[in-house]
Design a protein that fits this description.
The protein is of the alpha/beta class. The protein has a single domain, classed as Ribonuclease Z/Hydroxyacylglutathione hydrolase-like (Metallo-beta-lactamase, Chain A), CATH 3.60.15. 35% of the residues lie in helices and 20% in strands. The strands form 2 sheets. The chain has a 7-stranded mixed sheet with strand order 1-2-3-4-5-6-7. Helix 5 runs antiparallel to helix 6 and helix 6 packs across helix 8. The chain is globular, with a radius of gyration of 20 Å.
Length: 322
């Protein structure tokens, strides 16, 4: 007979300790991100972040951002984790092109993807409506937490909410036909962008590569469905939200494999009546051990997601007992 899940108050209290990494490293006296754009296609550059947690050593530079130089101006994909990052991103763009920035797309509302918005013209900032809402309502608290994690790198950073709503469908900019693909699962609104001209897919945080995914706002079934949509697209390169650029669907499949395993692990644990501390002690499969920050992300995912699995298992147990 299966045990009834035990929801222990001490274990639930751990959620608040597991959700985000603690600050590590010293604050930078000279906040230079050392951004070095890498050209991956015609007119297309990527700034690859570190496969780490947020820290005072990296200033939050754990995210991939990108930009595309078109005949009508520059399109930026995500603005990074701080005002300083956005300013240095804009300087990096200027070293490559004299074109103005005409569009800055925030793929979703996590802080490492939009807190550089201050560095760009307000009229260029754009996102899905639900992302705009998320930045407007949660931007202040997300910014405060980034100050705690990254220290001096965040000096002068304030959240700026995009005013331009985007919708799914084609978007023509300077000879590039961008396909805006509105999805969800990693957050309530996740925007992927496919440049039909170059075949580059900017996947945002729907896709992680060689790094364990983050799950603070995740709904795993919707996320897996979004990955199916992305894999069905015709692309020649995929730029994940975190991790190296790839020339095949490997990162999409890797992300799906992790989410599938995580969902099954948490479901089985809840059905077996394990409490949170017991789940945290479970071993990780060998296939995932090489993922960056896998131990930390597993702990955070348990803290973020497991109570809902326990509640569902408890509800099923009550129904079966009737």
């Amino acid at each position: 007979m299966k045990r009834v899940p035990r929801i222990l108050l001490p274990a639930l209290a751990l959620v608040f300790l597991l959700v985000l990494p603690r600050p590590t490293g010293a604050a930078s006296a000279d906040p230079d991100y050392g951004l070095a754009p890498e050209k991956i296609a015609d007119g297309t550059w990527v700034l690859t972040g570190r496969s780490e947690d947020f820290s005072r050593a990296n200033g939050g530079n754990i995210v991939n951002t990108a930009f595309v130089v078109t005949d009508a101006g520059v399109v930026v994909i995500d603005s990074g984790p701080s005002r300083a990052y956005g300013e240095q991103q804009r300087q990096a763009i200027a070293r490559i092109s004299g074109q103005p920035v005409v569009l800055v797309i925030n793929t979703h509302h996590h802080p490492d993807h939009f807190l550089g918005n201050q560095a760009f013209p307000a009229g260029a900032l754009a996102a899905l409506p639900e992302t705009i809402h998320g930045i407007a309502t949660e931007g202040g608290s997300l910014n405060e937490n980034m100050y705690r994690l990254a220290g001096d790198w965040m000096a002068g950073t304030e959240p700026v909410t995009p005013a331009r709503p985007l919708a799914a469908g084609p978007l023509e900019v300077g000879g590039h036909r961008f396909e805006l693909i509105a999805l969800d699962g990693h957050t309530a609104a996740d925007l992927a962008v496919l440049d039909r001209r170059t075949g580059v897919l900017f996947a945002g945080d729907l896709v992680f590569h060689d790094r364990a995914p983050t799950t603070p706002h995740a709904r795993l079934p919707a996320w897996q469905a979004a990955l199916d949509r992305l894999e069905a697209l015709s692309f020649v390169r995929v730029v994940p939200g975190h991790g190296p650029v790839a020339t095949d669907a490997g990162p999409i499949r890797q992300t799906r494999a992790w989410l599938t395993w995580l969902d099954r692990r948490l479901q089985q644990a809840a059905d077996d009546g394990l409490d949170m501390t017991e789940v945290l002690a479970l071993p990780l499969p060998a296939e995932f051990r090489r993922l960056a920050v896998v131990d930390a992300e597993f702990r955070r995912s348990v803290g973020q997601l497991y109570p809902a699995y326990e509640q569902r298992a408890l509800s099923r147990g009550r129904s079966d007992a009737r």
